């Protein structure tokens, strides 16, 4: 069971992206595999595992992309096949691999279970994905990236429950990540989304493997769009969250954090990660955003390593804070 591996914050990693859907359904990024015409994402992941001791990667993908824009349809053999190449490259490293539906609780701007796709349509997606990956104990199911501006948190919890029930129908033991509203904010979780998400359970009534999914950036507006960091988030977010998790006998995974390759981000991100390490009874790990296909030259939060011959050189932030040898 993956939860037993949470020693000294054992779940570190980086994110590698395949085309994902924002609120409008617009796709971004390039498939990060040489075989698909993109960068060498497989080589990046091998480097991160071998040289940096990482053991988890988050693999974002758009719902529309997987179904070729056919809501309620079956996995598209071409697009889902390309995504599977990325998943298999991740699994080949021996790391845990998060299947991350990167849709912000939406399909083309319409909210799941609240005027948009039905819970049954959402559950159908997850039944198909869980069936495809049920045989691998290194797969983690990330139900949804960063829901936000969801009108009714209890209805959203119902949507999350529908996904959990669908997954558990075929995949009994893998970890499932439960996302909240407010961009699944670590700071907001205890008082806003958390109480509703605590009611989500496995079909047998247990909470085994159901992990609270949180994100937190360190820049001036918590947007992850600035190269300078201004906070370590400890007193405002992670200490209150740790207290809440212990009170409710639950655990969380910080599946998205990061900053610019600057001195301020090195200071604050390293401090944040140190706190997570020190509270590994409730925090299973952290995942840095973002590697894969994001250009170090144009993307402010790039964690893409540079290849020199047969070796890789990490960004300064990865070297200082995110590589497990640094934590």
TrEMBL record:
Highest taxon above the source species: Eukaryota
PANTHER family referenced in this protein's UniProt entry, alphabetically: CBM1 DOMAIN-CONTAINING PROTEIN, ENDO-BETA-1,4-GLUCANASE A
Family: Belongs to the glycosyl hydrolase 5 (cellulase A) family.
Record keywords: Carbohydrate metabolism, Cellulose degradation, Glycosidase, Hydrolase, Polysaccharide degradation, Pyrrolidone carboxylic acid, Signal
Keyword Hydrolase included in the entry's annotation: yes
Role description: Endoglucanase (EG) that cleaves the internal beta-1,4-glucosidic bonds in cellulose. The degradation of cellulose involves an interplay between different cellulolytic enzymes. Hydrolysis starts with EGs, which cut internal glycosidic linkages to reduce the polymerization degree of the substrate and creates new chain ends for exocellobiohydrolases (CBHs). The CBH release the disaccharide cellobiose from the non-reducing end of the cellulose polymer chain. Finally, beta-1,4-glucosidases hydrolyze the cellobiose and other short cello-oligosaccharides into glucose units.
Cleaved signal peptide residues: 1-17
Protein name: Endoglucanase EG-II
